[in-house]
Design goal:
With about 90 residues, the chain is of the alpha+beta class. It is about 20% helix and about 40% strand.
Length: about 90
């Protein structure tokens, strides 16, 4: 299992809409296919400028693919996303 994390900022001049919600964790794993998504919002980060998303998958590439899916059709689908910065 590989876990990668990113800060997802709001569009320039905007706060991250998702950050106003509660932090949450989703586990969509099935058998050997790991798919865990965790989102830390302002209740944990103390800011509405960004949310932190942690994705655990079987490979680093799957983590990145899942991130892009979450930006377009997932957690951030109703947000105006700006910069995305991987954190280590």
């Amino acid at each position: 299992m590989i876990t990668r994390s990113w800060k997802v900022y709001g569009a320039e001049g905007h706060r991250q809409r998702e950050s106003f919600g509660q932090s949450r964790r989703f586990d969509f794993s099935e058998g050997d296919d790991i798919k865990i998504i965790e989102v830390d919002n302002s209740d944990k980060t103390g800011t509405n400028d960004f949310s932190i998303i942690r994705i655990s998958r079987n490979t680093a590439e799957e983590c990145e693919q899942t991130l892009m899916s979450q930006i377009t059709d997932g957690v951030f689908e109703n947000s105006r996303v700006g910069a995305i910065e991987e954190i280590f």
